[in-house]
Amino acid sequence: MVLQNKEQSCDLLQTVQCELLNTQRVESIAAYNNNKGFIVSGTSGYFGVYERTDDRKDPFILIKNFQTVDHETISSITISPSDESVVGYMKSPSNQLFHFPLVNIDMMKETDQSSHFHSVRKHGMHTGPVIGMDVCVNKPYLISIGIDKTARVWNYLTWNCEISHEFSEDPTCIAAHPAGFQCIVGFKERVSMFNILMDDLKPCREMQLKHCKAVTFCNGGHMFACAIGISVMVFNTAKFENISSMTGHIRPVRSLSWSADDRLLYSAGVDGSVYGWDAASGRREEENMQKACQFRSLVCDRSMVAREDGRNGGGGSGSGGGRDNMADDSYDNDGSNSAGNANAANNSGPLRPRSVVAVGSDGKIHNIRNGDATSISVQPKGVMITQVIVNHANSQLFAGTSEGCVRVYSWPLSPDASHFVEYKLHNGPVTSLQVTPDDFYLFSASEDGTMFAMQMIQVQ
Hints:
The protein is mainly beta. The chain is built from two helices and 39 strands.
């Protein structure tokens, strides 16, 4: 129905019968700003343009009728103030914004559909929840995966999606190599390594490992770790050979985090346990159990300190030799890139992270130091922390919540963690947080399918 607005009422001008198929229905209507017509969109890619005429009986007529290539539902449209273009939203499966030019609509052919609808963003966006993401160190890349079976490589300097790759099966996790030339993606039945090319991801290696829920490269990039069910496995990146395997969890492992010197690997599982492992030998170095919690995420402090008990965590030739070899492969000859080596001369024993933070289903932040945990209740009650990460300056802890918010805590945490700044970003739980190497951007992803980039400003 076409209504004319008056001061205190509306008059019915015309009832328009849209030329729809039996399977189509109207979803959205937008009027021109100069009152010369309107546009109707609907299911099965329907897009009809109506213009005003001098006929009083039928003041509006259909002049052109278009349809999207893949017949997606156009659920929302809006017309620019100059009436020169239309921006619309296509629902699942594409979940994309499109641009439609109105300037030359009289010259457009209704049969040539592919040249009329243009994507607002190259390679589009994720459809549905974003499962995970990771950043590279040597390249300005943010790599994300979603439930839509795609991986996207974003350049956070140009804000363009440079690569969109579709998988044949559902991905479960992703890790980007620090150099920015490779990434590892976990699937239900396998773990695959991909080379990051100019315009695509090319598979180069894979292993038949089932139920991989977390994968992460060490800081030097020479090793990567996979959470395979209740086990944790560490591999050599260059040779794709297994270095060590850790068992101890009795329920699936959900999160992994490396110490700054790559000697220790920490794991957290839904069984409520957090373990610290020697990456070379696979021996358990630390442990903490919270039976009432199903852990979802953990992160290590970036500063390294000596063990308070003075215990030699390396033990045996396997661990000690492995630590020396890893240091030679991943750091400068003078050891200037290792946070642990910087303090090693002043400490008699092996180094460990000052603390480890783990969060899960009990609504608490567990700050673990030397195997002992201090549990801090999250405020307000009922809100759960779903993801945590520490910035590279080791001064702030970022936490994503089940309400779609991102919190900023001072690091190290205060005894009650009551002071924080909260930003409402998403309409669903936060699924991943990442920080760029220069601490300039914080990225967050959510189950609502959105990704946000926040510029971090250091405040004293």
